[in-house]
Amino acid sequence: MFKNILVIGGTRFIGRLLVQRLLRAGHRVTIVTRGYAPDPFGSRIQRIRADRRNELAMRAVAKAGPFDIVFDQMCYSPLDAAIAVRTFAGQVGRYVMTSTVDAYRVLGFERAGLLKEDDLAIEAQAIDASYPWHDPRRATECYVTGKVQAEAYLVREGSLPLVTPRMAHVLGGPEDFTGRLAHYVELARAGATLHYSKEDAAVSFMTAHAAADFLFWTGMQDFTGPVNAACDGALSACQLYERVGEVLDGPVRTRRAVPAEAPGRLSPFDLPGAMVLDTARAKGLGYSFGHTDEWLDHTIRQHDLAFV
Q: In whole angstroms, what is the distance from residue 239 CA to residue 235 CA?
């Protein structure tokens, strides 16, 4: 049975892949876009031009519903979450707010073992509505805190049928605008040494296609609450760089950073401790994740070709 679905942030990367899957499944799709990025969907979708942070504009979006599912890829702060509640409470059958593995950073890096959803007492997190969340100069520093507080707001308010997929770090091909995997490929091509904080500080990964597949699947289920999503086979920054060297047939050099250098700032996935997701809940609900060995080498080669 087809559903009427709204995707907030559906014009690039994971959002675009998600829309493709929804259309292939025969659903009616509307995307919210500011109109800055083109999309390839033509007349197959409806488009509403609106700024996610403008409450009046989002209320106009809601009038195009009611929607069976809303996929919110652009909820980055408790202010965004408040707009979502005031806009969609009572107007949507399921609300999928995309969260991140980085939400677990608030726990620190001293914990042992895999990260389970309940390890993060999201409802107990403080919410700071006075912080300048939308100041572009603070976009990086407020990302993790903003995601955590957005989740906390939605959970505490409780009026949306909410599920919050906490997604592993996504590694895509050349279309990956984050440039994180490209950083390691470029470093290897230059023959540079990777300095790292901790050799075995592994982090969870997944592909953009895997992320879109999981979001699609999550939208069609009826469970609520947080759920972790990651491929098996976590890697540290050091291990990832060594893997890049193996794929490019060139040995790479790594070196433990001196203590004076701050951990987490040496390369995109450099961490002072492990951050590996426990995906038992998703697996128990019937989802099957792949392994990084199945796709990582190919993704590295895609980036290498982009540099040629």
A: 6
